[in-house]
Design brief:
seven-stranded mixed beta sheet, 1 helix
Length: about 130
Amino acid sequence: QVQLVETGGGSVQAGGSLRLACAASGRTWSYYAMGWFRQAPGKEREFVAAISGNGDNTYYVDSLKGRFTISRNNANDTVYLQMNSLKPEDTAVYYCAAGRKPYYSGSYYYTGTGYDYWGQGTQVTVSS
């Protein structure tokens, strides 16, 4: 079992930045893909970004237009999401996830079904 804990959420004004972190513990696997998803009030959970097990490949939802950057440090089993130029529509609970399926099929990076473990989420609120 893998446990994931997100930190770094909070309130920020539009145009500001936040850096989320997701620390993994338990039976971690070096080839686990790590992803970030978010869910706004009244909306379904949506894909934000993902990164391959070795950190060489990253994937983003097109609508972010380069504002977000995902990275990982496998030495401490931590994945980060740098969020810049935040907008009110970025307000959501952000979840990190880990899974093995993307290692075998890249399409699973983009969907929740590709991930087996989920964190509790961290709230990001962007004021206008």
